[in-house]
Amino acid sequence: MPFKFNNILEYRKLIEDKSYVEFSKVQKEYIKINLNINNIKNKIEDFKLNYSKNASGISSINDFLILESGYQGLMNSLDTTLREKDIIEKELEKKRLYLLQSKIEFEKIKKLKDKYLAIDKLNLIKKEEMILNDLTSNKYNTEQN
Fold first, then answer.
1. Residue 44, in any domain of the structure
2. Which of 43, 78, 100, 131 is most exposed by smallest CB count within 10 Å?
3. Lowest-pLDDT choice from 62-71, 78-87, 116-125
């Protein structure tokens, strides 16, 4: 007898696969944002290392303000990117929990199917045993007569 809930099992597998794909997408975003943060931090370090050299060549207040605005721009960019990272981390955790939940739901139905198949196999073995017993009994009765 076929498993009654096979369509549910397939549906749960589909949900699990979909949640894995969604998790992977957010994970890629997380990796990308971390690379972006490292890139900005490197630019800030370069700016700090070259600050005295760049500041020594400045002759007007406008040039100094431009230099300072470059630094402020990098710091603002870092701050914005760190906030984006926090949002992505929260989303990543949501997707991870959803993936875990979908795996658990799939495994529940899969275990139910395994139990069902084991019981079905056990019933089949019992039925075969009854048939063999019946055949043996009939054979014994015909030999006795």
1. yes
2. 131
3. 62-71
For residue 95, how many other CB atoms are within 10 A of its CB?
19
Residue 60 structural domain: 6-115
Is 46 domain-assigned? yes
- On whether residue 123 sits in a domain, the answer given is no
Question: Per the domain annotation, does 124 fall within a domain?
Answer: no
Residue pLDDT, tens place only, 41-75 = 999 999 998 878 877 777 788 888 888 898 999 99
Measured from the Cβ of residue 128, the count of other Cβ atoms closer than 10 Å reads: 10
pTM to 2 decimal places: 0.72
Whole-angstrom distance, CA of residue 95 vs CA of residue 21: 10
Instruction: Kindly state the tokens that stand for 53.
Output: 């050299």
The tally of CA atoms less than 13 A away on the side-chain side of residue 118 is 6
CA 135 to CA 145: how far, in whole Å? Answer: 16
Q: Which residues contact 96 (CB under 8 A, 6 or more apart)?
A: 23
